[in-house]
Amino acid sequence: MQNIGHSMANDDRYGSFMQELQRRNVVRFGLVYILVAWVLLQLGSILFAAINLPPWTIRFIGALFILGFPPAVIFAWVFELTPEGIKREREVEMNRSITTSTGRKLDIISITALVVGLAVFGLQKIA
Fold it and tell me: Tens of pLDDT along 51-64?
């Protein structure tokens, strides 16, 4: 019986952690980061080939995006975008938080990045 209660407590903590990730838009920000990085790599592969840069340059840029992902997600967890600028999350009162508005903006950015990325990818396959 003890293990069942302990397991439920872990599930509650996991659920509240996931809710906090969603509330702070960390998941959305991570998705936007990945999509924008993918679009930039697609564009970079076209442009770098056009200006005869060596093949390792696109891999280097990709590695920079991969290395930048953890700090970017941590930044999204710690800070919040407010009308007054970027503030630490704990300094923003819950009733003054605009995370839902920021979330909608992130959704628009991710959809735009996905459309642009698919267009670039499609053009690349056609050409």
Answer: 999 989 999 999 99
Q: How far apart are alpha carbons 77 and 86 in whole angstroms?
A: 12
Q: How many Cβ atoms from other residues are within 10 Å of residue 57's Cβ?
A: 13
Give the type of residue at 80. E
**Three-state DSSP state, 112:** helix
pTM here?
Answer: 0.73
The rounded Cα 30 to chain-centroid distance in angstroms is: 2
Q: Rounded distance, CA 110 to CA 31, Å?
A: 7
Using alpha carbons only, how large is the chain's radius of gyration in Å?
19
Whole-number Å distance between alpha carbons of 1 and 85: 50
Burial class (CB in 10 A: 0-12, 13-18, 19+), 32: buried
Measure the CA–CA gap between 57 and 121, rounded to whole angstroms: 19
Angle, helix 26-50 to helix 56-78, in steps of 10 degrees: 160
Please provide the DSSP assignment of 49-110 as one string. Answer: HHTT--THHHHHHHHHHHHHHHHHHHHHHHEEEETTEEEEGGGS-GGG--HHHHHHHHHHHH
